[in-house]
Amino acid sequence: MKNLALITILFLSFSLTSCDGEKVMKAMLWGFNKMAGEGYFPSPEILALGEFEGAEVMVSNIIENGENESTIELKFHNGKSPSLRYSEENTARKCAELYALGYSKIDDYKTIKISFIQTDPFNSENFAVSEYSFEVKDLLNNPTPENYGFQ
């Protein structure tokens, strides 16, 4: 009986707020950002840098022999920018630096791993992956110049 009452209350509260799905999603995203840390999702600036179609964030928190081995992995899908094609390493470093500067809990991690995934538009089973790893302390202490090697 209690379960039925709880389900009814949940259903009513969602149905009353479901008029504006965008507000519900914004509230959920705001709540997740508060839990995961501000800047957890890649910023629009990072996505625009490579003209990426999508991005994923995966984290692993590992403490091995008393040392922090935690990693953040950012996967960017189907980038189309010329800078990505001509200077993939510089683009990866700039993405990592921008993410490190924007994420509020970056100090909890040791490494940022950037993956560029390109999918064949004619056969989605064919894809290419390029991966780059950066130490967080290097990104925060030794940022590259403003132009990041782009001409």
Automatic annotation (TrEMBL):
PROSITE patterns: PROKAR_LIPOPROTEIN
Protein name: Lipoprotein
Originating organism: Aquiflexum balticum DSM 16537
